[in-house]
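Hi V.,

Quick status before I head out on leave. The structure for the redesign project is tokenized and pasted below; the design run finished overnight.
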């Protein structure tokens, strides 16, 4: 539970401490982004004594250490040890007010078209004295030359470029609001007749700014790192959400470790990042830094749990295995540095496992999330995964996750359970992992698998290749292709009974677009199919000069795709679909290691996703 105090602090005091470097930003805070309109609106709100919302600060020190940086525009010699508080919420407001009220340089902001501009802010004294209802018009911004212009910048309508012109036009610079002594002396010397009117302005307008109190919530330094990060995430609703990677990066930076360089690399310092290293394997190109951190959290908490059990701890004393955000945020730097390479190697082995299962394209990967526990399991197993009994169990678990469609959505709890239960199962336990127990595939699901985005759709596409599917043109299996050949001859999923043929016979798209009427074939083969009936295109294929197969040889090739050749050559769509359903169910049952039976429960219904490029 986060501990905090709630109080009010004079705005001027907050800005003084920001200017002195006593209040700074944690490095994970994003840059200042407010535009000119927002800044003027903020100034109007304070002038009218309206609330501008609470500011949340974190007491610096303790175990929650972040790399820090000053508010934009502040040049301070304060070191990390001098920083007393960090801004968690209120960065945009406090930065805007610091830039406008404390600095004599133009404010770097944006116009309503998001173009970068420089602005100074002024108050029209005479207009402001008409009352609060005029403040929106009285508070203005001018360009970097302290002028307002029309006619595309040719004509100057207001010139405040010198103090004398400020006095003459009776416009007060907002940078003098908190300390106006020098400006007042200059005004009195320039035109003392205006001074009584100015004193009314000082009393009715400037005093509101000087006496304005800001509600402040201050988190104590004894709060845990993950609690601070989660609090920041909750209050940062107005900005762009920060990823767990950015938050971890900020905490490790305090100890001199640059996680961005670790992940993305730094060519200037000849540092190759983890992302590039993993990306040498095609199946790992989409691994995200958050995936890697989740894997580290799983390995670290699994390690801690084993230590707790060995020490005789029981119940809640035992560390829980976790990949949840809080656990990732609590990951010590020491654990990251020690487990980084083993997990990296685990991901590399995961890519080898996937290739062995006939996954060659990252587009066909059913779940990126399932790679996280897979990599962790392999990091712990090392070369043991190649032992037949170990490999069989690993393969069964993987396919149960895919065809049971169990790794979509929030899966952190499943990841943690699978890691523990898979290691125990591989080491001889009779208890199957939750994913193996929970997995269920209904034959009716084959009718509703129509979307390439569906995990089971992708899984069955690859399962057919795993079964030894031979291409109808190249006469080779995907397993026989090396990396270069795969790129040139790679298979994609296409209709067996062509879409055009089906439409002419009034077969509904929901039927002919299902996985039952799809198979992996090469571009060359698909071009020869066109919109022809199977009986016609099969004959053309097998007699092509590059193929040259008799009926028996062609049938052997077709059977590798789980097809009934007789029904296919006779153009019997209904009979073919039911025969293929039976064959696919047998293969699905085989890889899942359990019977596939109809339960009567409702099955998921995919949207039609006919993007295979047929016909």
């Amino acid at each position: 539970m986060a501990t905090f105090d709630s109080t009010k602090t004079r705005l001027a005091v907050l800005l003084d401490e920001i200017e002195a470097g006593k209040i700074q930003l944690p490095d994970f805070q994003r840059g200042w982004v407010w535009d000119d309109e927002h800044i003027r609106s903020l100034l109007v709100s304070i002038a009218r004594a309206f609330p501008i919302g609470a500011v949340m600060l974190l007491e610096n020190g303790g175990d929650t250490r972040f790399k820090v940086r000053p508010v934009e525009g502040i040049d301070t010699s304060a070191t990390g040890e001098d920083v007393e508080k960090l801004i968690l919420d209120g960065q945009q407001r406090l930065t805007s007010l610091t830039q406008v009220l404390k600095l004599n340089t133009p404010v770097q902001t944006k116009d309503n078209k998001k173009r970068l501009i420089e602005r100074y802010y002024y108050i029209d004294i005479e207009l402001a004295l008409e009352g609060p209802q005029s403040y929106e018009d009285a508070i203005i911004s001018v360009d970097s030359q302290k002028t307002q212009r029309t006619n595309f910048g040719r004509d100057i309508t207001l010139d405040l470029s010198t103090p004398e012109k400020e006095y003459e036009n009776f416009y007060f610079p907002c940078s003098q609001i908190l300390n106006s002594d020098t400006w007042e002396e200059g005004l009195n010397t320039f035109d003392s007749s205006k001074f009584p009117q100015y004193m009314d302005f000082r009393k009715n307008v400037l005093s509101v700014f000087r006496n304005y109190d800001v509600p402040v919530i201050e988190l104590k330094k004894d709060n845990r790192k993950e609690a601070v990060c989660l609090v920041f995430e909750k209050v940062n609703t107005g900005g762009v959400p920060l990823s767990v990677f950015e938050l971890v990066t900020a905490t490790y930076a305090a100890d001199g470790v640059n996680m961005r360089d670790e992940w993305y690399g730094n060519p200037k310092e000849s540092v190759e990042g983890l992302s590039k290293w993993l990306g040498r394997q095609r199946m790992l190109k989409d691994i995200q830094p958050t995936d890697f951190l989740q894997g580290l959290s799983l390995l670290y908490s699994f390690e801690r749990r084993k230590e707790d059990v060995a020490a005789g701890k029981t119940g809640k004393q035992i560390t829980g295995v976790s990949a949840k955000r809080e656990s990732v945020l609590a990951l010590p730097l020491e654990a990251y540095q020690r487990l980084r390479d083993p997990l990296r190697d685990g991901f590399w082995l995961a890519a080898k496992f996937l290739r062995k299962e006939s996954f060659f394209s990252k587009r066909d990967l059913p779940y990126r999330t399932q790679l996280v526990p897979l990599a962790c399991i392999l990091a712990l197993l090392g070369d043991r995964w190649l032992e037949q009994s170990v490999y069989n169990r690993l393969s069964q678990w993987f396919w149960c996750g895919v065809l049971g469609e169990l790794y979509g959505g929030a899966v952190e709890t499943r990841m943690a359970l699978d890691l523990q239960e898979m290691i125990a199962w591989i080491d001889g336990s009779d208890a199957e992992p939750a994913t193996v127990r929970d997995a269920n595939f209904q034959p009716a699901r084959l009718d509703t698998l129509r979307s390439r985005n569906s995990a089971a759709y992708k899984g069955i596409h690859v399962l057919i290749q795993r079964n030894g599917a031979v291409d109808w043109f190249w006469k080779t299996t995907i397993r026989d292709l090396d990396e270069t050949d795969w790129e040139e001859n790679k298979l994609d999923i296409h209709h067996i009974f062509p879409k055009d043929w089906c439409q002419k016979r009034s077969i509904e798209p929901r039927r002919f677009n299902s996985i039952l009427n799809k198979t992996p074939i090469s571009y060359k083969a698909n071009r020869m199919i066109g919109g022809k009936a199977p009986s016609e295109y099969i004959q053309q294929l097998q007699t092509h000069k590059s193929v040259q197969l008799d009926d028996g040889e062609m049938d052997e090739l077709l059977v590798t795709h789980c097809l009934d050749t007789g029904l296919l050559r006779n153009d019997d769509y209904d009979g073919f679909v039911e025969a293929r359903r039976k064959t696919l169910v047998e293969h699905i049952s085989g890889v899942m290691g359990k019977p596939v039976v109809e339960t009567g429960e409702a099955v998921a219904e995919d949207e039609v996703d006919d993007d295979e490029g047929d016909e």
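Above is the designed sequence. Residues 445-592 form one domain.

G. will cover questions while I'm gone.

Best,
W.
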